[in-house]
Predict the 3D structure of the following.
Amino acid sequence: MKILISGHTGQVARELQLALREHELISLGRQAFDLSRPDSLRETMLRERPALVINAAAYTAVDQAEQERELVFTINAEAPGAMADACFELDIPLIHYSTDYVFDGSKATAYREADTPRPLGVYGASKVAGEQALRISGCDHLILRTSWVYSQHGRNFLLTMQRLLQEREELSVVDDQIGAPTWAGSIASATAELIDKWQQGRHHWGTYHLTCQGETSWFGFASAIAERLRAAGKPCARLRPIPSSEYPTPAQRPLNSRLDGERLEQDWQVRLPDWRTALDACLQRMS
Ligand SMILES: NC(=O)C1=CN([C@@H]2O[C@H](COP(=O)(O)OP(=O)(O)OC[C@H]3O[C@@H](n4cnc5c(N)ncnc54)[C@H](OP(=O)(O)O)[C@@H]3O)[C@@H](O)[C@H]2O)C=CC1
Ligand SMILES: Cc1cn([C@H]2C[C@H](O)[C@@H](COP(=O)(O)OP(=O)(O)O[C@H]3O[C@@H](C)C(=O)[C@@H](O)[C@H]3O)O2)c(=O)[nH]c1=O
Ligand SMILES: [Mg+2]
């Protein structure tokens, strides 16, 4: 099947290129498929005539987003809307990724798909607007909300921690934001599974939560990374748990980032591995 993927060098896009390699992939970076120019996307899609589109491109710099609201909304909301309109016209489905940061984190339990988004920052607000644009387009779509994505490439918490833990004596990490670290490789495998099942005739469109199983804090995630560094005989800083109030950032993050994945299991029988298992799989790939 011919699949158009946006976001060429991104964490999820790179893993999709591996997980979907038996398909005919058209993986486009910002040169050929620039989401900051939403009007340009339709032409490329109509020319390529894919059977499915996966939007793995996004503006993901959460703090910087606070200063570039207009550009962030163009890339994360207007562009997915334009892609969805073109998918509707071509009568093909669109798979799109969204985030735990659509929620404000005030819920006591894990978020379900039907919970009302209330983003705390510009990035989250732009992702909410992107979701809405897909829903009103009328195209068949999957909005897959994931969280705390890392991989061996790009900018992410795993690589940041690996560097800082080896450079410093002590490192303070917030312990009151709870969520599920999710390997981009797990997201890509699950996406490939959904595509297989769709090709076999299953059609459960809509919004789904797709994260690794289990939960931890950023401090817990950092501790797991530190444990594995030490096991590999690498130098490693002492870790200190701190409250978010001691780590001020331009954008506020939700305290509860937990996403309930039951709907995905019910409708699609897709379940991601535990976050620790996925972390080991990613590290294995890196070694
Ligand atoms: N990262 C995370 O922790 C999480 C991500 N998500 C969502 O998952 C999806 C994939 O994220 P992830 O792979 O981690 O993101 P990355 O930041 O790793 O990759 C995003 C990609 O989008 C590209 N991009 C940015 N601006 C444009 C543009 N104007 N035109 C074309 N491409 C552009 C980037 O290109 P370049 O490298 O050139 O900038 C990059 O390749 C996104 O929808 C994101 O919102 C959800 C939850 C958590
Ligand atoms: C580097 C560092 C971060 N932190 C904190 C800051 C923050 O609360 C938390 C995570 O920091 P980051 O900047 O890596 O994470 P952040 O950019 O907020 O990650 C988010 O990205 C977007 C795209 C998403 O969609 C989310 O799911 C989430 O993954 O860790 C520390 O406490 N100590 C540190 O040394
Ligand atoms: Mg970040």
